[in-house]
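User: I want to check something. If I give you two sequences, will you return the structure for each one separately, not as a complex?

Assistant: Yes, each is folded on its own. Here is the first sequence with its structure:
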Amino acid sequence: MTSGTPAALARGELLIDSTTAQDKHLAVGDTAPARFALTGPATLRVGGIYEASALIGSYLVSSQFFLAHYTARPPAALLLRTNGSTAADNAVTSALARFPNVQVQTGAQSEQAQVSSVNQILGLVYALLALAVLIALIGIVTTLMLSVFERTREIGLLRAVGMRASSPGRAGRR
């Protein structure tokens, strides 16, 4: 947090990232207009500003606020700071054990999962690039072979109509 407090979420206030705060000229205590598809227009009070993070996004609200303004679809991710406490990690893991579709990961594990998925896509791109290079090489070899065959036939035709092969010593003589 760069200003404000995370406790503002419990009060139904909005947390925004520092980039958005700067772009929209917002500070802690300011109000921001919003429009929700389910509940219509609303005015939100900015309760805190946090450092920009691609994982969190630009705006952060409490789960109660979210459920009041959106359909009851669960959030895609939940971030907890446990300060490396093994007891807290074990408590979270055991509390979520009855949900087989929920995955508990540390920050490093989450980062490794993202890196792994990007590496898979990168591997596919490299494979397609290798295939394109192979096809290009086959095309070049085929073109050169056709050129040699055509040239051989041209030389054969010229000899058939009377042209002689010239040697370096006989150039210019008849």
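And separately, the second sequence with its own structure:
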Amino acid sequence: MLPKRECQSSPQERRKQLPKKARKSRGAESGNGQARIRPFWSGTLTFGLVSVPVNLFPANQSNRAPLRMLGPEGEPLARRYYSQKSERDLDPDEMVRGYEYKKDKYVVISDEELERLAPEKTRDIDLTRFVPAESIPPIYFERGYFLTPDEGSEKAYKLLAKTMEQTDQAGIATFVMRGKEYLVAIFSDHGVLRAETMRFADELRSPADVGLPKKPKVPTATVRKFEKLISSKAKKEIPRAKLEDDQAARLLKLVKKKESKRANVVEVEAESKDEGKVVDMMEALKRSMRGKHK
């Protein structure tokens, strides 16, 4: 008999189980009517005898105009786990996790075993190693975050940020977030500490893996020709317009046009009046920093 993992309720079910006050607090708004941004993680940056309590905020947000699958009556569709053997949908308590070590061969891993393998829970990012910021290949970067000072840590935060920026050093550490251990690089940009979670070395492919030669030979004359071409097109910075998502803009324009004409519009009951609000991460970060530096 395969071990079963405990039944996990869906986000909707968990939401219903929350007290009314807790449900309302999740949809709290800031003073300007925008949805309040909450830290993705809170902990402490440690450097020698210095400890800096910080909050971690994602540095990006998805505005890719996602499309959702709907049923014939306009109802949103949900994904389910389906057993090809029994030809029926499975409940959460009927499923277990397995690692495929060979084609169609799995080793079952229980929740208890995963818990024993989990990293030690800690709220610290211990900066014990520093390297030149430019020495880290961008291919290692996975996702960017902002670190903001927690209450009472503004002075130490400013000192660490200024020192790292002047020395052009990046701190390398590991930390635990939501039960998973991450490799992270900490940078300082104009007085703001920024974190980049990094891929581990065994997650990267080499040029040889995709068939590229180690050092291709190119005639010097050809290189000089291309240098002139690049110089003629070089800019001091990337124009903002070049960073816009034109495809998403066209899709949103079509959606707005059809919505205004009430063409192919269906309505479903929303779970919360606060869902769907767009949050400006940079503006919220600036407000946070201004408030803390007064």
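Because they were folded independently, the notes below concern the second chain alone. Residues 1-33, 273-279 have pLDDT under 50 and may be disordered. The first strand starts at residue 41 and ends at 47.
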